[in-house]
Amino acid sequence: MRAARRALDTNQQRVTGQAIVNRLSRHPALCGAKHIGLYWPMDGEVDVRGLVQRHPHKRFYLPVLPHAPHPQLRFVHWRGQALTYRNRFQIPEPVHGVSHPPARLDLVLMPLVAFDPSGARLGMGAGFYDRTFWIQRLLPGAGPRLLGIAHQLQCVEFLPTDSWDIPLHGVVTEQHSYHCR
Questions:
Q1: Do residues 26 and 52 lie in contact, with contact meaning Cβ atoms separated by under 8 Å?
Q2: Is the pLDDT of residue 71 over 90?
Q3: Is residue 20 classed as helix, strand or coil in its secondary structure?
């Protein structure tokens, strides 16, 4: 899946990103959200950073990787400015800014490697999102809505899950908006 999304040319990536930003701009989860976590795209992930300029009245936050012994992501307010610091995976992160508690975000847009229509998500394997939103395993209505963002080609019929995997509420691709739970 990672190779397939990386194989998309720059124009395909741009068109997909614009289509998903358009779809998200009409999505009830985004329309009702004020505090939104998003991500910096890497390795062929869909770029939805255009939402920041398109929705200036909303507050957007980027994840910051945890440092030991803290296992959870922090989300730092981001206004769309260039970032110069890169974390240990070479992903740009905001160095300064106000953190927002992950559980108090309204919506989190999450990258993924693969997904299935039930809301199972295959990430990059480090478990950052699962550890950050573990409370949803105990209290299904707690915390933000979790929406996966993907190219349609990342949809598979079935993904096996483990007990610690947090299912997505939905997934948005350039072709569909999946409602999962």
A1: no
A2: no
A3: helix
Question: How far is C-alpha 80 from the chain's CA centre?
Answer: 16
Q: State whether residue 3 is helix, strand or coil.
A: helix
Buried b (16+ CB within 10 A) or exposed e, 12-23: ebeebbebbbeb
Q: How far apart are CA 38 and CA 55, in angstroms?
A: 13
Beta bridge partners of 74: 64
Helix (H, G, I), strand (E, B) or coil at 122: strand
pLDDT 10s digits, 118-157: 999 999 988 999 999 999 988 888 999 999 999 999 999 9
Write down all domains in the chain, each with its CATH number in brackets. 2-179 (3.40.50.10420)
Q: Is 123 helix (H, G, I), strand (E, B) or coil?
A: coil
Whose CA is closest to 166, among 135, 103, 149, 178? 135
Q: How far apart are CA 56 and CA 52, in angstroms?
A: 6
Enumerate residues 6+ apart whose C-beta is below 8 A from 129. 73, 108, 110, 123, 146, 166
Q: Which residue has the tokens 């030991």?
A: 68
CA distances from 159 to 73, 117, 120, 121, 154 (A): 24, 9, 6, 7, 11
**CA 5 and chain centroid, separation:** 16
Cis before 56 (ω within 30): no
